[in-house]
Design a protein that fits this description.
DNA polymerase, domain 1; Serine Threonine Protein Phosphatase 5, Tetratricopeptide repeat; Ankyrin repeat, SAM and basic leucine zipper domain-containing protein 1; mainly alpha
Length: 479
C-alpha cells in the first residue's frame, strides 16, 4: 500500500525543515483552560447574585469552598469580591470581607473599593457612609484618581452623599485635584446642583475663581444650568456686584449728532456707547458702570492690556482671561474692503441727505475701529518679532506675513481714496444745503447786543455814505 507524504509548494525541496513553512501539527485545544475560564466566570456570577441579594452565608461559602479563602482573588472581570460588595452597597458583607483581610486599596482598571462605593447613586446614605467608614478604618487611600482623573470625593459629590463628603473633608482630602476636564470639587458641586456640598467646600477653603480647560468657571456652569441656589452662593462669596441694567443714555440714538459721537464738543468721535454692547457680549456686563465712569473711549477699551484690566477692577483671573479672549476675537474678525470703500464702489447710486449722513458716519466708525485693530496687531507683533527675526527668508511664516503686509497696504490705499471721495461729497453737501434746523439755536444776550451794535454801525455807515453822496452831488451841481 502506497504511503503519501504531504506535498511541498512548487519549486521547493522535501528536504527543507517543516518549521520553516509551518507544516507541522497544530497544538490541540486546551479544553481544560476553557472550562477553567467558564468556571471563573460562573464563580463571579454566583458571587454577584449573592452580594446583590445580601446573602452573607452564600458569600462566605463561595469564598471558603470555591476561592480557597482568598478574598483578594482577581475575578474574571478583574474586580475583587470587596469591590462588588462596595459597589452594591452591602455594608454587612463589606465588613465581613475586611475582617477576612480584603485589600481596601485593591485596584482594577484604576478603580478602588471606595471609588466603587461612592459611585453608587441609588443605595441608602447610611449604607454608603458605613462602607466608607469601614474602608477608612482599614487604611484606604482617599486621594486616588481613576482613568478620568476623578477622586472618591468627586464621585460622592456627583451622587449627593453629603455625609460622606463631610467625612472626607474632615480628613483633609485634596479638594483642588483636577479631573480630565479641569474640574475641581467645586465644579462638581456646581454641575450637579449640590448647594449644601458647595457650602462645605467653601468652608474648607475651596478656590472659586479657577477655570476649566474650556475657560469656564464654576459660576459659568451654574449659570448655564440656571441653578439659582448655586449662583447665589457663588456670587455672595465672590462678592460680585448686582447685575448692571443698561442705562438708556448709553444706548439710544436720538439726533444726527449720534452718528458722530463727540462732534458737539469739537472733539474726535469716541464711540464710547459701543463699550456696553461689547462687555455684554463677553458676559462682563457687571463691569459696565466702572468702565463708563472712567470716560474712556472705544479705542482705549479695544487696546486694554493685563495691567489696565486689573486697575479697572477685573480682579479675578478668569474675568481678565475672558476680556483678553473677547478683545482678541474682536480684532481677529475678517473685514471686507467694500464695507469701508463702499461709497467709492457705489458712485453711480444717488444718495439722499440722510443717506450721505448715515454712510459717512458708518465709514468714520469703521475706519476708527480699523485704526485700533492695526495698533493692536502692531503691538502683538512686537511681542513676537524677536522669534520671527530668526526665521529663514523662505519660511512659511515670513511668506505669510509678507503677503498679509502687501494686502494691507493695498487696502489702506483703497481706504485713503475712499476717504478723499467722502471729503468731496461732504463739501458738496455742505455747500448746497442750508444749516440743519437742529443747529439753529436761540440767540443769547451777547448775540442780541452784538446784533444791535452791528445794526447801529450799519445804519451809521449808510447815513455817512448818504451825507457824503449829497455833498458830492451839490458840488457837481454848483459847477
Amino acid at each position: 500500500m502506497a504511503v503519501y507524504l504531504p506535498g511541498r509548494p512548487g519549486g521547493e525541496s522535501d528536504s527543507d525543515s517543516d518549521e520553516d513553512y509551518g507544516f507541522y501539527e497544530k497544538p490541540p485545544k486546551n479544553y481544560y483552560q476553557h472550562q477553567l475560564q467558564n468556571e471563573k466566570k460562573k464563580v463571579e456570577m454566583d458571587l454577584q447574585d449573592a452580594i446583590i441579594n445580601g446573602h452573607l452565608r452564600e458569600v462566605q461559602e463561595i469564598v471558603t469552598s470555591r476561592l480557597g479563602n482568598n478574598v483578594n482573588e482577581r475575578l474574571d472581570s478583574g474586580w475583587s469580591v470587596l469591590m462588588h460588595a462596595c459597589f452594591h452597597a452591602q455594608d454587612t458583607i463589606v465588613k465581613y470581607l475586611l475582617w477576612q483581610g480584603a485589600d481596601p486599596n485593591y485596584r482594577s482598571d484604576s478603580m478602588t473599593p471606595i471609588m466603587s462605593a461612592c459611585s453608587n447613586s441609588s443605595a441608602s446614605n447610611e449604607a454608603i457612609y458605613n462602607i466608607v467608614t469601614d474602608l477608612i478604618e482599614k487604611g484606604c487611600k482617599l486621594n486616588c484618581i481613576d482613568n478620568y482623573g476623578q477622586t472618591p470625593l468627586m464621585k460622592a459629590i456627583g451622587c449627593g452623599r453629603e455625609d460622606v463628603v463631610q467625612k472626607l473633608l474632615d480628613l483633609k482630602v485634596n479638594i483642588e485635584i483636577r479631573d480630565m476636564q479641569g474640574w475641581t470639587a467645586i465644579f462638581w458641586a456646581a454641575h450637579h446642583n449640590q448647594p449644601e456640598i458647595l457650602k462645605m467646600l467653601i468652608a474648607h477653603g475651596a478656590r472659586l475663581t479657577e477655570v476649566d480647560k474650556y475657560n469656564r468657571s464654576a459660576l459659568t456652569l451654574a449659570e448655564l444650568h440656571e441653578y439659582e441656589d448655586i449662583i447665589e452662593i457663588l456670587k455672595r462669596h465672590l462678592q460680585l456686584p448686582e447685575p448692571y441694567v443698561e442705562q438708556e443714555h448709553y444706548m439710544d440714538l436720538s439726533t444726527w449728532h449720534d452718528f458722530y459721537p463727540g462732534i458737539k464738543k469739537g472733539r474726535r468721535p469716541d464711540y464710547k456707547s459701543e463699550i456696553p454692547h461689547l462687555l455684554y457680549g463677553m458676559n462682563l456686563e457687571s463691569h459696565t458702570p466702572t468702565i463708563m465712569k472712567t470716560g474712556m473711549d472705544l479705542r482705549t477699551f479695544l487696546l486694554l492690556e493685563e495691567k489696565d484690566m486689573a486697575d479697572l477692577g477685573f480682579k479675578l483671573p478668569y474675568e481678565r482671561l475672558r476680556l483678553r479672549s473677547g478683545l482678541r476675537s474682536f480684532h481677529k474678525r475678517n473685514w471686507k474692503i467694500s464695507a469701508v470703500v463702499g461709497m467709492g464702489i457705489q458712485k453711480a447710486q444717488n444718495f439722499s441727505m440722510l443717506g450721505y449722513l448715515s454712510a459717512v458716519g458708518s465709514h468714520l466708525h469703521q475706519i476708527y475701529v480699523l485704526e485700533a485693530t492695526l495698533q493692536y496687531a502692531l503691538r502683538e507683533y512686537k511681542k513676537v518679532q524677536d522669534q520671527i527675526k530668526f526665521e529663514p527668508p523662505d519660511s512659511p511664516i515670513r511668506i505669510k506675513l509678507d503677503s498679509a503686509a502687501q494686502k494691507l497696504f493695498q487696502n489702506i490705499e483703497k481706504i485713503r481714496k475712499a476717504s478723499d471721495r467722502v471729503k468731496i461729497i461732504v463739501k458738496k453737501v455742505a455747500d448746497s444745503n442750508p444749516k440743519p434746523a437742529d443747529l439753529i439755536r436761540e440767540d443769547t444776550l451777547g448775540d442780541i447786543i452784538a446784533g444791535y451794535i452791528t445794526e447801529a454801525v450799519f445804519v451809521a455807515s449808510i447815513g455817512l455814505l448818504i451825507y457824503n453822496a449829497k455833498q458830492i452831488l451839490s458840488f457837481i451841481v454848483r459847477k
